[in-house]
Fold these 2 entries.
Entry 1:
Amino acid sequence: MNLTRRDFLIGSAGLAAGTCVSAPFLLPKYHVDRRSKRSRVAVLHAEQYSQKLDQILAAGLRLFPIDVRGKRVVLKPNLVDYAPGDAINTHPLLVLAAAESFRRMGAKSVVVAEGPGNQRDTQLVLSQSGYRQSLREEKTRFVDLNRDQLIRTRLRASYTGMTHLWLPRTVLEADFLVSMPKIKTHHWSGATLSMKNMFGVVPGARYGWPKNILHWKGIQESILDICATVPVHFVIADGIVAMEGNGPLNGTPRHLGKVVLADDPVAADATCARLMGFEPDRIAHLQEGSRFLGNAAASEIDQLGASPDAPSRVFDLVPEFRGIVGM
Amino acid sequence: MNTDLFLLSDLLAELALRQLPCGGWAALALSSQPALEATCFSTLAVGLAAPPSYVAQAQEFLLRTQNPNGSWPAFQGDEQDGAWVTSLAVTALRDVVPAIPARLKAFHWLLECAGRESSWFWKWKFRTADRHVRLDPDKFGWPWIPGTLSWIVPTAFSILALNQLPCTCGGFEKMPFRVERGIEMLLDRACPGGGWNAGNGVVYGVAVPPHPDDTAIALLALTGRKQEPLVQSGLQYLVKTAPTLTAPWSLAWAILALAAYGQGIDSLYKSLVALPDLTKTDDTGTIALACLALDYQRTLSALGVTA
């Protein structure tokens, strides 16, 4: 084939134009790859919320090579709103057990921090959900992330199209950030676990109650951008009493009897999803997150505790998400 | 009822200690970043009793932080698109003569700012494809930040602010329309059992419970509609819920709203006064709000609400 100079130039120009058009779709939308070769997850049995959680959690944490000595530990529970008898929030006994464990492990400080998504009166949620009294008794500091000092932070992924968010100083300056979700179904994202729990770091005083901008930019996309930007170092998920159905606020409590620990939020959430009877690859942010935030495949996860068996009955979901069921 | 002057004095002293050198207040005790919500409530609170120079410093801070487009940012250093606190800043500068041009500019911004469901495309989407949250998109109010939906609190504060406009001339002809739409939006988003939350009364066919502070703020904006059944059911919810409250923020809002509707507030007032360690509350806005509730008559007057 004879290739003239003219053909070559036309071909080169076409290739360049094609690259310009398709590059945004081909280039990865994340700027960091946080995956480790293998992730560790421990599924612990805990039948109820009791003082025994201290021992259960301490034993579980010993399975991981964690060193928090001299570090500022921030515990981020899921504290959204309060309704009597509902399983909306991470139970305070689990949060206090975690605080005590990390203090014993030599943490410089342990702070509980959250920015409730629905309720502007954070003190009211703390009070009604049993946190206020417990935190006071244990002399544990709480920071309202909805009103914390803010730092303009460049996002480390571009799924939403936003370039930056204003994020709370307490979270950005944490040496060891622990996401402590409640294991729940979610009517707009399928499941809300350790990654979705990070919505709580987005400040209400800047973005509103609820953090509506994240809904407009896409919930799955926002989860990815936030988790790429604010690294979660550890996960302690409350699945003792979980929630199914129309979560995250109006679902039904579901006894699961599990606490899930992990050194990788994607691995934690994939394991929690399996415990709920869901296929992690069918949850959009988990599937995409497994490309750069952590490991979702069972073959890449070392199970340190009990095996994450599927439940006898799959967690109930709103109709739009029944496709994520894995059995 | 007489104002509890001892507690009010302690709380105002605490606010004085927390005022930043720039004249504003941070949202939390350990923060040094001036936040507009805390500053607006604190400015109103110190205006109840503090010497003029002290108040003037706060007012000057507010005037300095106004965005070129007439809005106010959520905190000093924020982007200049504007935020929901604009309506609070307008109210905090209510009686300040040098602030008149700034307030007029802010009123214009408020009239232009609307929830995203006000556009034809999103109206269509909420009517056809996205019907999980019960709302009538024809009834819109104000968002927390531009580009998002209308929500209860920013809408209620914007109604209170716009009601301060002395006339609808000079470019403010849209004011009655926007206030009326805002009121309709508040009524549309009420919780089925009475009261308001952030703005989702029914989601996936399930009634979502109300919040006391959101209900109180909505009621303050609806004092002109006292006879509306939805207003009455919201009021009944608040009357029933307020005595159970132990959090100062919600309790203070409940006192203000119930006082505006002529309800008995003696026991609530005593509950607020009896709360332990109120001056040590981390949240500065809560301290300011407690001051405003303790002097509720003057506060209602500052909000333009007639009891």
Entry 2:
Amino acid sequence: MAERTPETETERLVRAHARRSFGPGFTDRVMERVGEDASGLVLLQQFWRLAAAATAVTLLLVGYSVLWTEPVEGQSLMEAALGLEPVSIAAAYQLADKLPDISVGDSL
Amino acid sequence: MPDSSPGADQDDRILVDRAQSGDEQAFRLLVERYEGAVAATVIGMLGPGADADDVGQEVFVRFYRSLPRFRGEAAVKTYLTRIAINQSLNALKRRRRLLDRFVSRDRSADEAPLVEPTVSGERAVSSNDVGGAVHAAIRSLRVEHRAIVVLRMIEGYSTRETAELLGVPQGTVMSRLSRAMKTLKPMLRPWAAESDG
């Protein structure tokens, strides 16, 4: 058998003294963390399911609002979806007619 | 040796399939089977201690998270070793940042660059603690040299496999290994001589 050179002896020492275990209970510690991680993932999945359902309901209500509300002239799609009065000068005058006459002096 | 036999690979495939379908016992068996390989990599890179244990756990948690995407192109051991190396390098960066934060208050910026504190094999380790001396010697290496020593010498990967795992050319692996050996040899000479005699 060939004599060991110092280099191969160094390699042998390094390999022989490498630690190949984290110590007792390592697998249990990993499984505990995996369990925590898995329950976090379940919660996250449930959150996304709820978020998707909420988005679907919102879109449905918006669609319903757009389809079944009588369109007002000059009303944008967004205003129709949210049920807002169109903002125009005519609408502002209409609004002014409906409001009681208020002046600065009265409020003081 | 790094690559498992075909039988072990097939066995791993079955365990991975079972773990992918939610069988925790199968995953537990994978952890038990590969703790040694992950420990050798992580402890080789970081030294023994709580930090290494944390990183070891993180390696398996990441493997668990990646199970749905794991297609088995790489052997389980190679896959885990890759995660272990990356996580160890991240832990060393964190350690370095922490060290910088504490030491920078007492040092001026123009002083010599910081190095990770290491224990000298000859001074801090008792003469009969060969394991301690080996760990100290490995920890005295630069991080990139340490990774080569861990993969080539401890894990037994070939130069090509080591190069692939670290994403460096094969020539770099060989030159780093040669430099690492130049550092390790004198540090471990007393113990090498002892075991020869």
